[in-house]
Design a protein that fits this description.
about 55% strand; 6-stranded antiparallel sheet; single chain
Amino acid sequence: MPPSIFLMLERNLGKKIRVVLDPAYGFEGTLVAVTHKPSGIWLSNAEAVVLRSTIAQPIPQVASREERSELFLHLNSVQRIEVLHSP
């Protein structure tokens, strides 16, 4: 049986992630909790990010950041979740 999205998210607790809500907007922060009802995730040290891509650089890059604090995101509004690895 394949793991559920909740199990995969719980494996990444404490890691820095990027949550993309639409192709040009998302949030980055540390994943601190996963909730089942309502289905969502809590981020701490969150930042709102604006993503930009061009024909020459088709992979979206962070164009700007805005500081946030604690943040709850409902999984129905999430398009993509990326785990960020430090270099």
